[in-house]
Amino acid sequence: MKLRVLGCSGGIGQGLHTSSYMIDDDILLDAGTGVGDLSLQEMHQLKHIFITHSHMDHVLSIPLLVDTLFSDLQDQPLLVYARAETIKTLKEHIFNWQLWPDFTELPSKENPSLKLIEMNPGDVVSVGERHIEMVDVNHTVPASAYIVESASRVFAYSGDTTTNDNLWDRLNQYSGLDFMIVETAFSEEEIELARLAKHYCPSLLAQDLKKLKHKTRIGVSHLKPGDEEHIFKQCCNEVNNEHELCHLASDDHFQI
Ligand SMILES: [Zn+2]
Ligand SMILES: [Zn+2]
C-alpha cells in the first residue's frame, strides 16, 4: 500500500499541516489541515475517512471537504468512521447548522452527502484489500489508533495518545509491523504538560516502545512547531537505536 503524509505537525505554519495521512488514493486517516494541499482531482478520489478522535487538529477538513465535493457526493456519500463519542461531538459542535450545515441531511436525509459511521475498538473495516482495525488508546477524549493491513503488510498510526498498554499489546499480536507513525507532541522539558494533555514526550514514548516486540521503522509526528529538531533529537537519544526513527514531513511518500 501507498502512504502519503498530508500533515504531521502539532500545529500550523508555512509548510506545516495538522494530522492527515492518505492510504493509496481513497482513504484518509484523520482529516487535519493537510487535506487542503490536495488537488481537486485528488479530493474527488477520497471515499473513506477514519478519525482517531474529535480534536480539531484531526477533524478540521471534514466540513470543508464535504462542502467542496458536495455535487459529486450525491450517488456515493463520503464515509467517515469514528467511535460513537467522536460522532456525537462532530454532530453537536460542527454539523449543527450553526458552525456548519448538517451534511448528514443534505441534500436529503435519505440521500446524504456525508455518512458518519460508528466504529468500536476491535472492529475491522475492509476497504478492498485494506483491512483497518480500530484500537483504543489513552488521550483526554475517547481516542483510537488504526492498524492497516494489506497484502501481509502492516502499518500502524497511533493518533494522539500517552502511555498505554493496549496499542502495543494489539500490535504484538500481528506477525509483523512494517511501518508505524507515532506522536510525540512535547519535549522532555514539558513532560508534566505531556502527562496532563495525555500526549507522549520522548521518554514516555521510549518507555512504551519497549513493550513492542517488532523492530520497525517509526515516523515521529505531532511535533510542536518551532521545537521539531529538539524533540526529534530527544526521541533519538531516548529510543537509542532500538528502532529506526524518521522525522516526518508534509508530502512524504512511503511504499509499505
Ligand atoms: Zn488530541
Ligand atoms: Zn492532535
Automatic annotation (TrEMBL):
UniProt name for this protein: 3',5'-cyclic-nucleotide phosphodiesterase
GO MF annotations, alphabetized: 3',5'-cyclic-AMP phosphodiesterase activity; 3',5'-cyclic-GMP phosphodiesterase activity
CDD domains: class_II_PDE_MBL-fold
Gene3D superfamilies according to UniProt: Ribonuclease Z/Hydroxyacylglutathione hydrolase-like (3.60.15.10)
SUPFAM superfamilies, per database record: Metallo-hydrolase/oxidoreductase
BP terms from Gene Ontology: cAMP catabolic process; negative regulation of glucose mediated signaling pathway
Metallo-beta-lactamase domain mapped to chain residues: 17-204
